[in-house]
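Milestone 3.1: sequence recovery, worked example.
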């Protein structure tokens, strides 16, 4: 049980949180704590996972940095501010490095949050200096943020709005509760895309089962249906969101979880190709390092007896800005290059429903590795290899 801790004395030590502009999937709100750190609402099961993380898995997960207390403040005009303060005994490296402020005004009449254009624009500019143009309209009135009525994605999207969508919902939830002065506990985690200038991110929901052991019968049935009607059942993996930097337009192309649910196995392969495309050509030089990283993860997962990574995601990340010093292979040059100077990464995230032997939430541990997760990794590797062969 994680206890609450008071705010640090004096607001000077508090960190004013801002939206994490590169959140491409999920439903939990992610916030930017500093340049190298993000935070998310604490779930005891996820905390338990990070605190007992096997050494072999640490290279494939964000670094766990500790816990902060987050406090919601509302001024006389209804502007909401989230302040974070480190708990006593906070690990080193989690200092208050950034004081950027963001705010939103709650519209009680419509039950929505209307984002302040100036402040949110400043947030995006600070997070992506000189990298992408910004949309002038940042207020959304529906949950269909990324596609038009025909399910098509407009390439004029200049940033990924999914994070703002999650923040809007999160602020509505916490601001509507009677005790708005309550301290909320958040996990501090490594920002795994901080080293990228134009982070291209693919969020994949892994495994053939998505509901946790604690799911109600209604939730269990709902998740089983989603798996059956998507590539989760046939491939053990489905797309939950992505953003791809398009060099020809200078914009990010974004897709959301609703897009991913509708894909057939063939469509999933086409979506992977799109994720690895600049808009002009396939980044075939990325295939070998991504596959090698996935194979290394597969080897580790096979050795993790009793772990079940229900509802967790896998991020595939690469730098959207191509290296000028390396010759760009043509779209039809599929064999792996001898050297791969490009930066890629593969990380597991979201462990709120992960169970393992010794976990308090899993009184009856499982035996052997997570075969549903392994099935998804194996199919993902096969599809990427088929792209490398020009299929």
């Amino acid at each position: 049980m994680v206890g609450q801790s008071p705010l640090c004395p004096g607001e000077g030590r508090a960190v004013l949180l801002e939206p994490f502009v590169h959140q491409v999937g999920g439903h939990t709100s992610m916030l930017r704590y500093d340049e190298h750190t993000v935070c998310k609402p604490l779930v005891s099961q996820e905390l338990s996972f990070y605190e007992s993380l096997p050494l072999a898995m640490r290279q494939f997960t964000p670094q766990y940095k500790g816990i902060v207390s987050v406090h919601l403040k509302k001024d006389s005009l209804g502007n909401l501010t989230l302040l974070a303060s480190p708990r006593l005994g906070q690990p080193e490296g989690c200092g208050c490095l950034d004081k950027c402020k963001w705010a939103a005004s709650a519209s009680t009449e419509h039950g929505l949050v209307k984002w302040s254009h100036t402040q949110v624009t400043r947030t995006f500019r600070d997070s992506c200096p000189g990298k992408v143009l910004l949309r002038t309209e940042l207020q959304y009135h529906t949950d269909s943020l990324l596609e038009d009525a025909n399910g098509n994605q407009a390439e004029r999207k200049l940033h990924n709005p999914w994070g703002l969508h999650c923040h809007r919902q999160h602020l509505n939830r916490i601001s509507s509760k009677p005790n708005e002065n309550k301290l909320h506990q958040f996990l501090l985690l490594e920002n795994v895309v901080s080293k990228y200038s134009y982070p291209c991110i693919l969020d994949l929901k892994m495994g053939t089962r998505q509901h946790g052991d604690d799911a109600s019968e209604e939730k269990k049935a709902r998740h089983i249906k989603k798996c059956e009607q998507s590539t989760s059942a046939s491939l053990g993996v489905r797309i939950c969101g992505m953003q791809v930097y398009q060099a020809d337009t200078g914009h990010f192309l974004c897709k959301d979880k609703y897009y991913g649910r509708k894909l057939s196995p063939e469509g999933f392969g086409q979506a992977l190709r799109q994720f690895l495309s600049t808009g002009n050509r396939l980044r075939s030089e990325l295939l070998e390092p991504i596959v090698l990283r996935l194979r290394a993860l597969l080897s580790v997962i096979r050795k993790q007896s009793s772990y079940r990574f229900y509802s967790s995601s896998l991020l595939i990340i690469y730098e959207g800005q191509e290296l000028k010093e390396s010759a760009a292979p043509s779209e039809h040059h599929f064999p792996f290059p001898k050297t791969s100077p490009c930066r890629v990464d593969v990380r597991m995230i979201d462990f709120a429903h992960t169970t393992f032997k010794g976990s308090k939430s899993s009184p009856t541990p499982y035996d052997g590795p997570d075969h549903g997760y392994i099935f998804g990794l194996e199919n993902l590797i096969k599809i990427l290899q088929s792209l490398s062969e020009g299929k």
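Residues 1-12, 88-150, 153-158, 326-340 have pLDDT under 50 and may be disordered. Residues 165 and 272 are 24 Å apart (CA to CA).
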